[in-house]
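Weekly structure sync, notes
Attendees: PL (lead), two postdocs, one rotation student
Agenda item 3: pending single-chain targets
PL asked that the sequence for the first pending target be pasted directly into the notes so everyone works from the same version. It is reproduced below exactly as submitted, 398 residues in total.
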Amino acid sequence: MDESSARKVPSDPGRNGATRHAQPRPDAGLARLIIELQGRGLRVEVPLESRQGGAGPADAGMLWIDGFAATVPTGAQYAQTSPYVLRAEDDGWGIYADGQRLASAEPFQRPRYYDLATADGIPYWQIALLHLDSLASTVIQTCAYWGNSDQCTFCGIGVTLANGRTIAKKTPQMLAEVAVAAKELDGAVDATLTTGTTATPDKGALYVARCAEAVREASGLPAEVQFEPPRDLAVIDHVADLGVSSVGIHVETFDPQVLARVAPAKARTGIDGYFRAWERAVGAFGAGQVSTYVILGMGEDPDLIVEGCRRAADIGVYPFVVPLRPTVGSLMEHMTAPSPEYCETIYRRVVPYLAARGLGARGVAAGCARCQACSAMSLLEGSADADGRTHLPLVSNR
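Predicted structure, written out during the meeting:
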C-alpha cells in the first residue's frame, strides 16, 4: 500500500499542533487490531464523535489508529463488553486490552463547521456530517420502505430523523454551502451522498445527483452518490452527465435467500438486476468507480459472497466488504457483529480478485470505497503481490 492509498489524517496545525500523516504501510499487528476492533467494538473512556442511525448499517465511532483512519462500533451493547478500550494518556490516547497498550489513537474531534448554521437557522451538522475526511449526508432522510414490510432490517434511516439529529430533506444549495465550509475549515476531501429510496421511477437517483453537482460546483469536492437501480437504466447516464465522480449501487449481499430476508424490495430487483445496473454504470463511470456494499454477518453462505464479489470485480465493480454494524433502532439492533476471523477469511478470498482486475481503494475518486474506514479490506490490498496473494498473517487458522 503506497502512501496515497492510505487514509491520511487531515492537516490541522491550529487544533492539533502539527501536520500528521498516515504510515505508508500498516504492519501485520495493526491490520489485525483494526479487524478485531471492527468485529468486537471499542469501549471509550474519552469523548468520541460517532455516527448514530442513518441509512445503512451505521454504528461507527471515528478515530485514527497509528495514523490510519478507522470506524469501529462503540454504541452497540456488545461493544460495551469489548476487551478493547480507548484511554486518555498524558500526551494523547491509546488503545488498550488487559492493561497492555496496543496502539496510539487519535479520537476524531468535533469539526469546526458544526458550529455554523444557515441563514434560516439550520445547524450545518444537521445537513451533513464529517466522517473523518469525507463529507456525508443522506439527502432525503425518508424511505419508501421504512416502517413497512419492505424495510431493510439493517438500516436506521428513520432513527436519526426521529431523534432530531437531521432534517428530512437537504437541498442542493444547503449541501453546497456546507461543503465549502467543511473543505475550508476541516479539510474534507470528498463528499458521499446517499438517499432513502423514493417512490419514483428513478428511486431518487436524479435528486441526489443534482445535490452532488451543486457540491462539486461550489466546493470542487469530488462526490459519490448512492441509489438503488432505477427502473430505466438510462437514468444512470444522466447521473454521470451531472459530473458525479463515482456511484454506489448497493446490493448488500450476494446470497439471494438472505437478501429476501433482510431487504425484500431489493430482492425484487434481484441480484441479476443489480448486475445489469452495474454494467450500465461501469460504462458511464469507468471500472473502479462503481461500488457495492457487501455486508457480512447476516447468515449468508460465504461461498456465494466470494463468487458474487468475483463476478462483480470481473465487470469492474468494487465490492466493498464490511462487517455488519447493528444500529440501535433498526430491526437488527440486538444482533452482534460477525467475528473478526470470519471477516478476515472473506477479505482474503476477495482481495486477490480485485488485485487481478486492477481494482483497489487507491483508484476510487470518492465515497465509501475511497474512504475504506469501515472495512479492513484495504489493509490487505496493499499486501498483495502481482499474483494477488496476500501476506499478512491470519488472525486464526479456523
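Discussion points:
- Confidence is low (pLDDT under 50) at residues 1-24, 384-398.
- Residues 340-357 form the longest helix (18 residues).
Action: rotation student to compare against the earlier draft before next sync.
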